């Protein structure tokens, strides 16, 4: 897919425009003023694959509810436990693949039938079964290699049956590094010997395998497991998806948009893996629309490390510029605070009002983005999701209800009065 075709795909709605941004590559900017909560993109995946290691697939048993409690439909990735919650036994509503039996389970006969003619073809079924039984992969390689093998099987299946979408995958950002090449050499040899795919245009090669691994690393979106406060904010990924249009959103540590998915709650099984991107607050025309690639509560050092390791860049957004200054002067600030502690009481007695004004001004200068966390970061225990208003009403009236993109919590928008108090009403069940 050419850059012109990619631009046309995201500009269809008239809300976004693809541009080349110096130092950031291609990005998406608002082509008109946007209201908070407005949906700017709904995107469907061209490729989905399980994030579970091959050897961690539980055995299917018609008499054991625990065997399906941590698994997901191999087609739509709904939780099998939630999809069968209305049944007396969870095993009565799930359907196994007729060929590989317990290794791939589906939430309904409809999902199985659709998978057999799309993502779970006979070659995919056979390839995953052979890889699962290969000791050199499941016993001698890191877990990550098993998930990469899943991706490559899905990608080469895409090349065979959906060549235009395979070309879209190859057009996305991402070039292989030394680690990608090392992984590609092992996986290419393994797949070509155990389950050689139909060669795509240009041939099946180590170079193509390395390129695909890089595209996956830079562009895959994780579909997370359901939120639970008991997980201490550490959720696992149930599946990965390649979303061709959403992949053009760049990162910002204080995003003006966030993505929502409704894998387990969407009424339509055919579209439940779509992702929806809504703006967090009003955005002027011409402003770049950015997502955060991870929870916004992470500190400066952690964010920079993850961005460099996973995406190969250093972030210089407004928030990082401020917090980098904190990091540079942290030790000096601690020493200064200790030296000034003795005189603090006298200063407060002699010039109380001036001191409070100075403190307030200094706080604003040190961290002008604090308002974002007060208003747009979910305060539910162990969540730290980003909140965006619900879509505007039919008459374009903005909604005063915010939705968390992690736990799904709804609450009325916060209104801060002159004294600093907040009027907030949780709508949690």
TrEMBL record:
Residues annotated as domain SET: 14-294
Acidic residues bias (residue ranges): 329-349
Pfam families hit by this protein: SET (PF00856)
Annotated PROSITE patterns: SET (PS50280)
Start and end residues of each stretch annotated as Disordered: 328-363
Protein name: SET domain-containing protein
Native species: Carpinus fangiana
Origin organism lineage: Eukaryota, Viridiplantae, Streptophyta, Embryophyta, Tracheophyta
């Amino acid at each position: 897919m050419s850059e012109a075709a990619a631009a046309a795909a995201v500009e269809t709605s008239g809300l976004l425009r693809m541009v080349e941004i110096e130092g950031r590559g291609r990005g998406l900017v608002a082509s008109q003023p946007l209201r908070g909560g407005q949906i700017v993109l709904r995107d469907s995946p061209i490729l989905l694959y399980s994030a579970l290691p091959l050897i961690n697939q539980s055995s299917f048993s018609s008499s054991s509810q625990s065997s399906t409690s941590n698994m997901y439909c191999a087609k739509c990735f709904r939780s099998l436990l939630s999809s069968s919650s209305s049944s007396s036994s969870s095993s009565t509503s799930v359907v196994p693949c007729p060929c590989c039996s317990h290794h791939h389970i589906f939430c309904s006969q409809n999902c199985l039938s659709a998978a057999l003619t799309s993502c779970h073809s006979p070659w995919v079924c056979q390839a995953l079964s052979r890889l699962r039984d290969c000791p050199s992969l499941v016993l001698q390689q890191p877990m990550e290699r098993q998930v990469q093998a899943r991706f490559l099987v899905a990608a080469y299946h895409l090349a065979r049956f959906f060549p235009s979408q395979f070309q879209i995958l190859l057009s996305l950002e991402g070039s292989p590094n030394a680690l990608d090449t090392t992984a590609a050499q092992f996986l290419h040899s393994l797949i070509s010997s155990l389950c050689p795919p139909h060669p795509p245009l240009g041939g099946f090669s180590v170079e193509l395998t390395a390129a695909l691994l890089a595209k996956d690393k830079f562009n895959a979106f994780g579909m997370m497991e359901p939120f639970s406060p008991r997980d201490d904010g550490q959720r696992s990924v149930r599946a990965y998806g390649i979303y061709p249009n959403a992949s053009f959103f760049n990162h910002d540590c204080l995003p003006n948009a966030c993505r929502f998915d409704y894998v387990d709650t969407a009424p339509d099984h055919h579209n439940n893996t779509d992702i929806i991107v809504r703006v967090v607050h009003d955005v002027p025309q011409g402003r770049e629309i950015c997502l955060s690639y991870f929870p916004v509560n992470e500190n400066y050092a952690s964010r920079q490390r993850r961005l460099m390791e996973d995406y190969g860049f250093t972030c210089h957004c407004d928030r990082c510029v401020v917090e980098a200054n904190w990091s540079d002067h942290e030790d000096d600030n601690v020493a200064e605070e200790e030296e000034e502690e003795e005189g603090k009481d006298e200063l407060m007695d002699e010039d109380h009002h001036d001191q409070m004004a100075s403190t307030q001004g200094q706080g604003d200068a040190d961290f002008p983005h604090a308002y974002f966390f007060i208003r747009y970061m979910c305060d539910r225990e162990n969540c730290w999701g980003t909140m965006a208003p619900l879509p505007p009403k039919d008459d374009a009236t903005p909604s005063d209800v915010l939705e968390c993109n992690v736990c799904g919590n709804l609450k009325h928008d916060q209104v801060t009065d002159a004294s600093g108090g907040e009027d907030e009403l949780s709508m949690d069940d």
